[in-house]
Predict the 3D structure of the following.
Amino acid sequence: MIDLRQLRDNPERFKAGARAKNIPVEIDRVLSLDENRRALLTRMETLRAEQKRLEKESGPQIGKLAGAIKKATGDEAARLQRELDELKSKPAQLKAEISTIEPQIAALEPELSSLLLQIPLPPDADVPVGAGSESNVEIKRWSPAGFDLGKSFEANRGFKPKTHQELVRDLRLADFERGVKLAGTRSYVLTGMGMKLHLALLRYATDFMTDKHGFTPISVPVLVREEAMVGTGFFPAGREQAYHIAETQRRNPDAADDKGVGSHDLYLTGTGEVGLMGLHMNEILDEAQLPLRYVTVSTCFRREAGAAGKDTAGLYRIHQFDKVEQVVICKSDEAESRAWHKRMIGYVEELLQSLEIPYRLLQCCTGDLGPKNADMIDIESWMPGRGELDKDNRPQGAFGETHSASRLYDFQCRRLNMRYRTESAAGGKSETVFCHSLNNTVLASPRFIIPLLENHQQADGTIRIPAALRPYLNGAEVIAAR
RNA sequence: GGAGGGGUGGCUGAGCGGUUGAAAGCAGCAGACUUGAAAUCUGCCAUGGGGCUUGUCCCCAUCAGGAGUUCGAAUCUCCUCCCCUCCGCCA
């Protein structure tokens, strides 16, 4: 969520931001609704102040009169009653007037808050402007010694690479047919060493963040309430990407009526970020607690609506996967946010280098950002079995997105109502301000199994396990056909 | 599944129709005492919003959320959400 006051002060900044992100929003409508609302609010508050003043004034008299009436008789009682009615009538008039304004304000609110939730965070000035992923800018490229990304896999290694689908089939690491039988398209089953490799990667990535970089490991619910989805900024824009558990639609078959028996709906999260960020929703933290550095491993669910026909085969684009995710919640300070962003990307680089996977860093352009990011760096791993086909109808290799590092300033924390109390400077008052937040993938599997298998395949069809991963596979150095 | 109890400031917790935006304690901040610290004492310490005369200013709202009763609601009524305890069932 953006700050309504900032929007009032500088609507152009937000209009330009939405335009650059290619997200249509009615900012002028928001401004006029807001202005309307404030005018009504001022009027109502003035009336209410007057009402309260009268109440205080006449309250005790009303009490006294009411008592006197009980004792009085005949004309005297009637006279007192008139006096009492007179006293009561003035605040009643004000109340009536207030009650005509109240619904007017209430009527404006749903549209205003719904529009406000749709206004994206403007991208930072140093983010390149562009319409979509074709305008993203490569800012760094790395490959292990002995592997030259300028040459083909064959030129580097002396043999034609298999695709991960072929490797997985030959080494019996996954079973797509049965996955689809069980759960439909984009489903899979990892088998044997495929499952072991999956678990080893997740555990290695988790240990890497906790033991080497001091992150706190945390488990999170993957079935969450709508608040958490809206708060983290995935809703309303990404509603169609999330699986929805419609508990309120649940019917009790024995009940005579058809009322729902579930208290509220739930949503399956598409990333551990939702749980990690939602942890401190509606809390006020102490500045001394910050930065919070959390890592979780969670199962992620994505409907992949609108991706029909895209990456349909293999382990690339699937409805369910597991992901180690890092989140940092820090002070409201641009320089600190930027520093953490760099650091969080650095952790992933270190991880990828330890696994000897070639990768590149992509500066996402404004059109590729999504509503909640001020800046986003994607990390793409080299996948020799991906990309355009050569003259022999074999893929030439391509980078594929495996990580995404977002910098959100206070956009998320504002929606989540997540603040901290500043340490008061000498003599100064402390204040409560919204935290900043950042998140980045550490490792998502099985997608990451793709670059791992494809890059470390050997001429004999086996897979060399990089040294860093061997402790997590009982010391195994190779995956071979069973 | 059955039966109860409860949601109050950063935390604990009183209040159960009338200056109660809210006692008290803890935590925090400032000061005094101290060589320093601790202890002790004194004072200050909720959030959101609106206004303009932008001020150690004024006003409004908020005691889970919503609706109602009342001149007046943290306090009474109804609905929703959430938490807890006991019993049963399951692990």
